[in-house]
Description:
The protein is an alpha/beta fold. It contains 12 helices and 9 strands.
Amino acid sequence: MKVEFAPLSIPWTRRAQAAAVCQWLCAHLALAQCCCIIFIILLLGDYWFIPVFYAFWLYYDWESPQTGGRRSKWVRNWTVWKYFKEYFPIKLIKTSDLDPNKNYLFGFHPHGVLVVGAFGNFCTEHTGFKEIFPGMTPYLHVESCWFRCPFFREYIMYAGMVSPSKKSISHVLSNKKGGNIAVIVIGGSRESLDARPGSFTLYLLKRKGFIKIALEHGAQLVPVFSFGENELFNQIENPKGSRLRAFQETMQNLVGFTLPLFHGRGIFQHSFGLMPYRKPINTVVGEPLAVKQNPNPTPEEIDQLHEKYLQELQKLFDKNKKKYSKQKQHLLDSISHATDAK
């Protein structure tokens, strides 16, 4: 394989962008594990009182990820996220205004390998969310397992991440004053196993829990499609029925998340590595789908609203695919391939 090295005369800003993405990638892949190791080392050493005190704090604060978390404007405004956004770049696009007196449920598609667009748009302030949707506060619901990691849980809550539990989503959508947005990556990490450039598979046909909770709270449903999300990495082939796919799905079932064997470019060369490719991510927020509150929706009502959501997602994709994507794939075809989703 011929290695394509990066030129030495790269502008400082591009190097800063690569450094910002590199630190985020390291945090995404290894920070939780490092925090757990540090906790154990401290517990077994002379500074045992630090993890002991933290354990008491953890017991006291255990419910925070399910009650809105603990976001920090300072963390969300770090300059490093500005360079992170510019690396790809990431852009947030609205198609309709949102009423700050109402609560919304954003269905984010597709997951991609590492959900870069969801993090950049809803966990930082550098894509202009507050200016685009004034009066609105987004909460990104991520896997529950990350909130069991000492220290790491504080970091992700500061960014605006919260638990994906029903209690957590209900807390966000129950704000009587309105202005809250529950952002849910509908396909989950299972969808990442099919994330490849030039195509996408959405796990959506059997995912109706978000529809039910939107009905229960009368939250307006909004489809969100992040064009370019699947273009950031290549992935080792893992067809259904293969040993690798079986292992990945078993990991998903046991620990609640899985990780595709992906690869992209390097820091000092463009041929191989774990850095994402510099591909634009255009996250398009669709028009709200009006939802009438029903504390006890029937299966028929859930199915009916689910079908409307699919139609709105299809419209959003069709209206924007020529501008932001070269994919010729039909959205509903990509959904039908994932009929085994749970």
